[in-house]
Amino acid sequence: MSAASRPLPDTAARTLISARGGRVTRTRVAVIEAMQASAQPLSHDELASLLGSAGQDVDRVTLYRTLDWLVEQGIAQRIASGERAWRFELHHDERHRHAHFHCDHCGQILCLESTTPVPPPDLPAGFAIARTEWVLHGACAGCNTEGPRP
Amino acid sequence: MSAASRPLPDTAARTLISARGGRVTRTRVAVIEAMQASAQPLSHDELASLLGSAGQDVDRVTLYRTLDWLVEQGIAQRIASGERAWRFELHHDERHRHAHFHCDHCGQILCLESTTPVPPPDLPAGFAIARTEWVLHGACAGCNTEGPRP
DNA sequence: CTCATACTGCTACAATGTTGCAATAACAAG
DNA sequence: CTTGTTATTGCAACATTGTAGCAGTATGAG
Fold first, then answer.
1. Nearest CA in chain B to A119
2. C1' of C15 to CA of B61 (Å)
3. At what angle do helices B26-37 and B60-72 cross, to 10 degrees?
4. Rounded to whole angstroms, how far apart are CA atoms A71 and A73?
5. What's the whole-model pTM score?
6. Is residue A3 over pLDDT 70?
């Protein structure tokens, strides 16, 4: 290949990474770009497929570690979707008050960023909240009108 | 053993089970009673230990199936605690508005039933909510005053 | 260009959950 | 109480999701 001296273009992803003092690798860039392109949080498995079909096969373990690093650096955030696997999305606002909707029929996860902010609950004294997860379960518009799919 | 003709006592657990047309088995009764006795949601693993140390060893698979059945029947409910495994507790109220607190330091899960009810968010039209999960993460009173434990 | 070392990609393993099937036990009927 | 039906159980094998250790590669600094 007649590779240029800079192997990867100077994208937003690149900036995000190097600002944290991390090395700009194909995997990190690809994961960030896949998340940027997705309207929904993605699971490890979905990310692997996305990268794979973009001709970017990534080792399972490397992908896990990349995701860990992104979360650690505050670039991405982890969501317990109500299924077995974590989902990941780029870290938007200040961690609080961001709900997700999980369709129990088609399995889709939707970000509900525009909904009314969740009021912090009254906690017993001495408790400190680091972050909250609010997941709504039910049927999305598509599945709701068509009736449940088994 | 000089077993009576009725092998199990007529407990609340027994009533819960037979009201659904299920057979009253040692495992189901033991699981329900363990949950009744616990202030917190229990994981599959914790339940297995509890039953085990009560001299009631249960097969892993049987326990999974028992829990599935209890959830299916609306006797118990499943909680995505933010860790890898599900947790289970007896199904209290009307499914909505029941928050949990997960201490990221000691791993405890606390039920916050007394907090202000969560207002249902504005959803896009056509969406139906079946149930919501609201999990707060942070440090509980004990861990918070003592500082984080690694 | 050279070098230190942050990442990667194996291979193995751990934790959590599921499937299929033969054996057992609940309980309804006689 | 005894018998028969069949819902549950228990076993073994497998599936999914995630981690640990370590040798090799490639990024980025000098």
1. B118
2. 14
3. 70
4. 5
5. 0.81
6. no
